[in-house]
């Protein structure tokens, strides 16, 4: 039982609010220093270096930088104007625009926290001016931001592909249908709440097709970025890592020469935000890989997989149990870290049960995105509540209908592998 001590230490450190990366590293080092006397500590230190020396991981800072460039280049505002022209006339117009903007943003930034922060600063103040309650605005902004990482080039799609050794291209294609289902479910929920509360549309009447066409042309350079990335990888023009660099270049060129809002002095702030975001993510990945080294030596993933298989050999029941586990873990651990920790544990069991790893990846990512909206440690919840100055108890009252909608989509995705795999199989 002493071999399981680091896991107990890990959760104790989580409860003490120690940063996730430090918790992972500290609990792993307890094992290598005090429990395992075979593996030299110098070899463990080499793991720290080798964990960061991965060419595919270069995609992470590039796509983090894309989100930062977008906020300075005017891309966000052009997408906002286009979304408003499309659905601003609907009941609860600005709230519907909130969901549509997250869907459009997902194809460019792929970061839930970047999307939540951007909408909290740009769209939320306008929503409160139009009579939307501040807690409702915060809850919707956090819930809609969960769509962004499910649409390519979501960072979590890349990380899962690396962890599960599946095609990044397949993961990218598998994200589209689930993301649009999430958007539709949130829009239906918004319409229901808006009718009950009398929230007005942002436009008195629908925009003309000519006006929509004009806003579409303005947003077209940004909208073409995700399709260019997918097509480039599909035809072998560049790897997912190189796609991140190309996306940064395209967003920069669009901001400099088309929208003309990106200025040379903005690049210092962009680089600073990129370094801060990358450092956080990479530190967690390194800590998780060292912790994973300990679990591999003790054969813990195989033990967990065997325990799950003994509980049931039914594929759907196994996925339901894993969903329940991920939802609970997502309430306490940041989504990306939860995925990095649990994927190596759960993957052998689902593969043995005949689950497609790409289908499983989509389930995991949607699940941890829902966790980002729930207390006590939901990252998007913290982002919007801190920016908009909303109390957590008020946030929770308003977010419940959106959580129900997202959970309904999660169940649909769990029971329908063909729905998730339709686009990858078609292409």
Describe the structure.
This protein has helices spanning about 5-15, 20-35, 40-50, 60-75, 75-85, 95-105, 110-120, 125-130, 135-145, 155-165, 170-195, 210-235, 240-260, 265-295, 300-310, 315-330, 335-350, 355-370, 380-390, 390-415, 415-425. The protein is globular. With about 425 residues, it is mainly α. Helix 5 (about 75-85) packs across helix 12 (about 210-235).
* Overall pLDDT score: 82
Q: Give the strand tally.
A: 0
Oligomer: single chain
| Topology as a string of helices (H) and strands (E) | HHHHHHHHHHHHHHHHHHHHH
**What level of helicity do the residues show?**
over 70%
Strand content: under 5%
Give Rg in angstroms: 22 Å
Residue runs with pLDDT of under 50 for 5 or more positions:
none
Largest sheet: none
Tertiary shape: globular
Structural class: mainly alpha
First-residue to last-residue Cα separation? 48 Å
Number of helices: 21
GO cellular component, one term: plasma membrane
Function: Part of the tripartite ATP-independent periplasmic (TRAP) transport system.
Membrane topology: Multi-pass membrane protein
GO molecular function, one term: transmembrane transporter activity
For this entry, give a set of tags:
single chain; 427 residues; mainly alpha; 21 helices; 78% helix; transmembrane
Topology diagram in text:
Layout: H1 5-15, H2 20-35, H3 41-52, H4 59-73, H5 75-87, H6 93-106, H7 112-122, H8 124-129, H9 134-145, H10 155-164, H11 168-197, H12 209-234, H13 240-258, H14 266-297, H15 300-311, H16 315-330, H17 335-352, H18 357-371, H19 379-388, H20 392-415, H21 417-426
């Amino acid at each position: 039982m002493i071999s399981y001590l680091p896991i107990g230490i890990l959760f104790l450190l989580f409860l003490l609010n120690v940063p996730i990366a430090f918790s992972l590293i500290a609990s792993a080092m307890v094992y290598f220093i005090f429990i395992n006397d075979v593996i030299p500590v110098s070899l463990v230190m080499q793991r720290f270096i080798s964990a960061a020396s991965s060419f595919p991981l270069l995609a992470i800072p590039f796509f983090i930088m894309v989100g930062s460039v977008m906020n300075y280049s005017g891309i966000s505002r052009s997408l906002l104007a286009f979304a408003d022209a499309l659905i601003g006339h609907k009941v609860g117009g600005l709230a519907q625009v909130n969901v549509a903007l997250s869907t459009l943003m997902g194809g460019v930034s792929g970061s839930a926290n970047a999307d939540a922060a951007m909408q909290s600063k740009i769209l939320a103040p306008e929503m409160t001016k139009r009579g939307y309650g501040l807690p409702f605005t915060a809850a919707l902004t956090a819930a809609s931001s969960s769509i962004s990482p499910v649409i390519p080039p979501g960072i979590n799609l890349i990380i899962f592909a690396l962890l599960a050794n599946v095609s990044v291209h397949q993961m990218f294609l598998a994200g589209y249908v689930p993301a649009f289902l999430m958007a539709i479910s949130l829009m239906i929920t918004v319409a229901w709440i808006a009718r009950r509360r009398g929230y007005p549309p942002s436009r008195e009447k629908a925009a003309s097709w000519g006006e929509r066409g004009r806003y579409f042309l303005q947003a077209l350079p940004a909208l073409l970025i995700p399709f260019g990335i997918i097509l480039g990888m599909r035809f072998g023009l560049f790897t997912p890592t190189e796609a991140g660099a190309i996306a940064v270049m395209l967003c920069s060129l669009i901001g400099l020469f088309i929208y003309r809002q990106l200025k040379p002095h903005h690049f210092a702030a962009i680089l600073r935000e990129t370094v801060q975001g990358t450092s956080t993510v990479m530190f967690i990945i390194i800590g998780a890989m060292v912790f994973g080294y300990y679990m591999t030596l003790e054969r813990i993933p195989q033990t967990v997989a065997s325990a799950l298989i003994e509980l049931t050999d039914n594929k759907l029941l196994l996925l339901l149990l894993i969903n329940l586990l991920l939802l609970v873990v997502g309430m306490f651990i940041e989504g990306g870290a939860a995925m990095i920790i649990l994927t190596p544990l759960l993957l052998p069991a689902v593969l043995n049960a005949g689950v497609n790893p790409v289908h499983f990846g989509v389930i995991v990512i949607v699940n941890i995105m829902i966790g980002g909206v729930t207390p006590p440690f939901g990252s998007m919840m913290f982002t919007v509540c801190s920016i908009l100055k909303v109390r957590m108890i008020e946030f929770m009252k308003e977010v419940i209908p959106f959580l129900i909608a997202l959970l309904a989509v999660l169940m649909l995705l769990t029971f329908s592998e063909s729905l998730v795999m339709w686009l990858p199989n078609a292409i």
